[in-house]
UniProtKB/TrEMBL annotation:
<dbReference type="Pfam" id="PF02852">
    <property type="entry name" value="Pyr_redox_dim"/>
</dbReference>
<comment type="similarity">
    <text>Belongs to the class-III pyridine nucleotide-disulfide oxidoreductase family.</text>
</comment>
<keyword id="KW-0274">FAD</keyword>
<dbReference type="InterPro" id="IPR004099">
    <property type="entry name" value="Pyr_nucl-diS_OxRdtase_dimer"/>
</dbReference>
<dbReference type="InterPro" id="IPR023753">
    <property type="entry name" value="FAD/NAD-binding_dom"/>
</dbReference>
<keyword id="KW-0285">Flavoprotein</keyword>
<feature type="domain" description="FAD/NAD(P)-binding">
    <location>
        <begin position="6"/>
        <end position="304"/>
    </location>
</feature>
<dbReference type="InterPro" id="IPR036188">
    <property type="entry name" value="FAD/NAD-bd_sf"/>
</dbReference>
<feature type="domain" description="Pyridine nucleotide-disulphide oxidoreductase dimerisation">
    <location>
        <begin position="336"/>
        <end position="432"/>
    </location>
</feature>
<protein>
    <submittedName>
        <fullName>Pyridine nucleotide-disulfide oxidoreductase</fullName>
    </submittedName>
</protein>
<dbReference type="InterPro" id="IPR050260">
    <property type="entry name" value="FAD-bd_OxRdtase"/>
</dbReference>
<dbReference type="GO" id="GO:0016491">
    <property type="term" value="F:oxidoreductase activity"/>
</dbReference>
<dbReference type="Pfam" id="PF07992">
    <property type="entry name" value="Pyr_redox_2"/>
</dbReference>
<dbReference type="InterPro" id="IPR016156">
    <property type="entry name" value="FAD/NAD-linked_Rdtase_dimer_sf"/>
</dbReference>
Amino acid sequence: MSNENFDVVVVGGGPAGIISAVTARKYYPDKKILLIKNTEIGVVPCGIPYMFKTLFKPEDNIMGDAPLQKNNVSIMVDEVVAIDRKVKTIKTKKGQELTYEKLILATGSNPILPPIKGIDQPNVYPIVKELGYLKQLKERVLKAKNVLIIGGGFIGVEFADELAGIAGLTVHLVEFLPHLLQNSFDEEFGIMAEEKLKAKGVNILLNCKVQELKEGKGATEAYLSNGACLRADMVILGIGAVPNTKLAREAGLDLGKGKGIWVDEYMRTQDPDVFAVGDCAGKNDFFTRKDLPVMLASTATAEARVAGSNLYQLKVVRENKGTIAIYSTWIDGLVMGSGGLTEAAAKKEGFEIVVGQAEAPNKHPAAMPGAEKTRLKLIFSKQSGIVMGGQVAGGMSAGEIINIVGMAIQKRVSCTELETLQMATHPHLTAAPTMYPLVLAAQDAAGKI
């Protein structure tokens, strides 16, 4: 394939790269499309925490090439090492030189390595999205007696929940903020997550930092800011990631005010023939336009669809011009979701808000088998009544309720519209029409507006 010409080249084989290529094929059926990935066997990012116990085997979490093959997208396993934007060529580690008309960078992110003394010792494991690495990590976990997880965001919490289910394994979780999930949820929701993990035996240390890691006799000693010392057979870094922008920077592409590649509303860099999507691309908050360090496969695939459809002409006009940072997670049966601004974040930004809250069974009547309480919190602008954020906790249906909230935020739905929402209900499937959480929370807020 040396010196071959392509119309569209996608760099990166994660969700953003795959969906970019597939979308490009849909909108531009006659174009010659290539996807280059540096890992032969990638994994589904969101499924990584569940490769240790929930999934039968790690291979069940493979992200295969079927969507690319089905859409006649060529695949190359190699690493792009240089981009020459003047002549529109790329060079790879294996010596290939390829030309492109349109280039999509989906280079993802790299795990954060915090400035902790001793962080580079062998017993410390960042989360790398590669099957072989994760299989080795699983083997190591199953031999361990004590595991220390650093970071109480989604990654750390989901790992703690999964590993706490392995018999004979003690799990410690250290978070420097006052509560778990605090970047995405208000305090009362973080406490719910903490209670769930504590009930599974996880030792949670909040308002606490790991200051140093030392290799002791057969274990790692973690010295904490509270003066304690924990001994663990291994340390897992669940702190998050930073955009992988090395290739873009070396090609002279600008970064935004944050750490990601600068892009416009259509995921175009300052070079109109180079796009960036997913973790490597900068994000702007939906309400403030400030840089937003959100790295989610759901966000990445939404961006990929925007880029793939608009490579040659702006075919799909983008109405959602910012990132609403919508998440969901599952902690020992408790589903939690968050979208838009939390109450704390809204107040910090100076928004005048009102809060609406509701709690109701997710089936009706409440005596229905399997019924669980759904707790919902909505944030509204006091002046306009527009919904600005929401948080939910409850049973499995909570995972879709937050998606309704996300659509409401994206479309700037008012409190009145939610209060008069028309919904389908059924005893087995939903809350009662008289007690529907979205309506109740809107009514609660309406009285304050």
